[in-house]
Amino acid sequence: MGEEKRNGIDSYNVPQEVSIYDMWSYNTTMEELGDKPWWKLPEKFSSLEEVWEYTKSKEYKEKNLSREAIKIDPEMACQPLGALLAALGIEGTLPYCHGSQGCASYFRFEFTRHFREPVMEAASSMTEDAAVFGGLSNIVEGLQNAYALYKPKHIAVFTSCMAEVIGDDLKAFINRAKQKGSIPEDFPITYANTPSFVGSHVEGYDSMVRAILEQLAEPKEEKTEKINVIPGFDPYTANIKEIKKLLNIMGVDYTFVPDWSRTFDYPLGKFEMYPGGTPLEEVKNAVNNKGSVIIGKFSLKKTAKLIKNKWKQPLQAMEMPIGIEFTDRFIMTVSEMTGKDIPAEIEDMRGIALDAMTDAYQRFHGVKAAVVGDPDIVYGVSKFLLEMGAKPYYVVSTNGTKKWQKEMQALLDSSEFGKGCKAYAGMDLWQLRSLMYEEKPDILIGPCDLKYYAREFDLPLVRIGLPIMDRFNLHRYPIMGYEGVINLVTFIGNALLDHFDRICPEVNFDKLR
Ligand code: SF4
Q1: Domain stop point among 343, 362, 387
Q2: Residue closest by Cα to atom 3 of ligand 1
Q3: What is the mean pLDDT of residues 210-220?
Q4: What is the 161 CA–ligand 1 centroid distance (Å)?
């Protein structure tokens, strides 16, 4: 078995007799593991099977839930990954990671696997010597090469752990690069510190959005009639298209920033180094627009402060428009801010979404869901579930804050269907597993990392959020707006029916559902 494993067992070729314990010891047999000091069963257990069973117990659950010193299977990524997404939403922008090559590759691969598109990013490629002497020469040379080779219109610099640990001064380094002639003095470079040992990809995204808006801003005396629409971290190209569609139907004049809807969604057969993105001129002018709407109230705190306190713009920081009520609220907010009426076409779209909800309502009623993901996305999806009479029983956000937990719990408590439902900030998936052994939900909703738990508990999984690496095209189906409501009904409702068809007794196996 040892040889066989070393030769590679994966995906479709896993023999039936290979258990999860074998997968754990992928490269080494139990005999080989022997009594190596790092691998010893605690005395009270005589086999790995016993340990596995113990992890399902109430006693283990208490220990697991009180664990603080380590996260196991957290559902979040690090700050620079979010910064990369923000940078990719600006016209002609080359994202630049001041840090090590491996980190930069990880961020690119994460998005490439999720969107199935190439991702542009340059890096300082810091190695051991930079860790000792600092990354100044890396960034001076790196920016010079990036500018000369890739001919961007703007470079957005962010940091990985390494640069942050040694304390590289980004602003001074970029100025130095300009003084040394690596890049022209007037070339636009924005920068944000994105230390990965605090926060998550959501905070990194926020920092980069703020940095781009603040550092490119060209304030003028006169205000425009436009509004800014600023999305929170959102791994769907279709959400952006859907929101823009609603704004266009309303006849609103807006700047959508950042906008990566084209970056990750362009036709096969032609290569563009920098497809899409919010036009740079619009980004520079965002400061002069008459107001801003942030969609994702937990995602963009630093950006909100910039707009409110420094730009002194009227600001609405609201929930992501997921589900009927939050979409209504978005439409009404934009209408109030711009003075535009809500056209009949939007009322029609809303009516169709309500119709889809009503068609499926009886299948959702009372269904218990575990909802996992970024704070804003789970907030919106939970609201949708409550609107459908379902129960978001476990709402888990590893990168959720205490404030998020409080507001999430208040949302659950505001509905009769939220009874017994609970929000968990900072929880990881291994802890959720313990909860599920005490009370099993009916469905899992969240990123593809949940598939291991879906398999273990024999539950349907609806993939929502980031990452989704094991299914095609889901980023092309919006979960926001009225179209998003229809998609959520379709994804979740059909997953419930598929599961029911699979497990129901023969007598209930019917073509009519
Ligand atoms: S956590 Fe730090 S080391 Fe790991 S990928 Fe992120 S930036 Fe790199």
Answers
A1: 343
A2: 161
A3: 98
A4: 6
